[in-house]
Structures are given as C-alpha cells and as structure tokens.
Automatic annotation (TrEMBL):
Enzyme Commission number: 3.5.99.6
HAMAP family hit by this protein: GlcN6P_deamin (MF_01241)
UniProt cross-references to Gene3D superfamilies, sorted A to Z: 3.40.50.1360
Function: Catalyzes the reversible isomerization-deamination of glucosamine 6-phosphate (GlcN6P) to form fructose 6-phosphate (Fru6P) and ammonium ion.
Protein name: Glucosamine-6-phosphate deaminase
The entry's keywords: Carbohydrate metabolism, Hydrolase
NCBIfam families, A to Z: nagB (TIGR00502)
Catalytic site positions: D67, N135, H137, E142
Length: 246
C-alpha cells in the first residue's frame, strides 16, 4: 500500500487525475472503475480539463461504477447515473454504451450477478477509484458486510444516509438501500486508487493505514489484502497518521 500525502483537495485531485490519465494513454481501451460523491468531483474536473486542453481520448475506454441508489430512476437528478453524466460522461468523448452502472430499479440477485458478469466480460477493472466513508465503508459496503461478496443490495446505515442528505435536501429523501459492487468484486481490480480529503476522513484513514488484516467491521481494511493500492490524501485527512508529505 503506497501512501501519497498532498497539501489539499486540489492537489489530491490533480494527482489522482494524473494516474488515471497515464493509464488511459498507455491502455486506450482500459476499464475504469469509477466512484461518486464529493471527493472525486475535483478529479473528474481535472480529467475533463485535460481532455479539453490536451485531447486525451476516452473513445475506446469502458467504465463501470461502484454503486447506485436502489429505487431511483437513472433520470432522477439524485441518481449516480445523473452525477456521472454531469461531472464526467457528458464532457469527454466516451461513447454511449461504454459506461455502465448498477441498475437501481432492478435489485434482484440475478441483476447483481449480471453486473459482475458484465465486468468479467470487459476483462475486469484495470483501475478502481475509491473514496472512504467516515465509518470505513468503500462503495456502499457498510460495516459488517461480507468481505467476499460480489455485487449486492445493501441497507444503508444512518451515518451514511446523513452524510448524503446534503444532496437530497433532507434525510427522509435519502434512499435506504443501494446496489453496490461487493468487496470481492472491488478486490479483483488490478489497481486500486483511494482518495481522501478533509479532517472528517482522518479517523477512517488513520484506521486504514494502521490495519494489518481484513476486518468486516471496518470494510476498507480489506484493501490490506490487495497488492496494488495507492492512497492519495491531503494533510487534513492524514492528520491522524504519521506520513510525511510525498
């Protein structure tokens, strides 16, 4: 596990975008695993800027997203499909039909299995972008989640729903369930890039850095079992760890 310490959110976003851009240039038909939420917004901004200024092409890239809220139509502005369109898909030359998200309107076991089969059919994920929740969740794999599951439906904890309420207006409007890649699916990725910013992530990141084994009570600890993990975090997020600036 390599840890890269940066000054702030902007530098974190630039570093993460550089790693993704390098992969896109080296392997034009790579499969990117993408994440949503506040943390990766700056990374997507940097990738869009690079595409517009340098012409980095996504014409042959395929993408798969970590998760989607259950019961939300893709056309709903609070869906992760809408998020990805707003922040990335609509601003680069990634063709329709080459980006995929879990179907929040079909939460059957069969649909979850089809999503994992789709990822396998693409050749697997070359690089998976991750954030980390305050309770250590990755994707929507909450504490107590199996560390071997594939894509599945999960009940969201109240802390996660409260953290996401700012996007919905009120906690009552936040869905109670989501479809998420399981940790078993995430760990199949050839490379994992976890980004974290802000003091509110310091406790979770501190626990991850100190973890020496996988523990379902802290889902992010499963990353200790992966051989190619890069963490890019700003000084605030690393304030509870002993990591010098890269």
């Amino acid at each position: 596990m390599k840890i890269v310490s940066v000054t702030d959110n902007q530098e974190m976003s630039k570093k993460a975008a550089e790693i993704i851009r390098e992969l896109v240039l080296r392997k034009p038909d790579a499969v990117l695993g993408l994440a949503t939420g506040g943390t990766p917004e700056g990374t997507y901004q940097q990738l869009v800027k690079d595409h517009q200024e340098n012409g980095t092409s996504y014409r042959s890239i395929r993408t798969v997203n970590l998760d989607e809220y259950a019961g939300i139509d893709p056309k709903d502005p609070n869906s992760y499909y809408a998020y990805m369109k707003q922040h990335f898909f609509d601003h680069v030359d990634l063709p329709d039909g080459q980006y995929f998200l879990p179907n929040g309107l079909d939460t059957s076991k069969e649909a979850c299995m089809r999503y994992d089969a789709l990822i396998d059919s693409l050749g697997g994920v070359d690089l998976q972008l991750l954030g980390i929740g305050r309770n250590g969740h990755i994707g929507f794999n909450e504490p107590g989640s199996s560390l071997t599951l594939g894509t599945h439906v999960v009940k969201l904890t109240e802390s996660t729903r409260h953290a996401n309420a700012r996007y919905f207006g009120s906690i009552e409007d936040v869905p109670t369930e989501a479809v998420t890649m399981g940790i078993g699916t995430i760990l199949k990725s050839r490379k994992i890039l976890l980004i974290a910013s802000g003091e509110e992530k310091a406790d979770a990141l501190g626990k991850l850095v100190l973890a020496n084994r996988a523990d379902s009570r802290f889902p992010a600890s499963a990353l200790t079992q992966h051989k190619n993990v890069i963490i890019i975090a700003d000084e605030a997020a690393l304030s509870q760890t002993k990591v010098s600036k890269d």
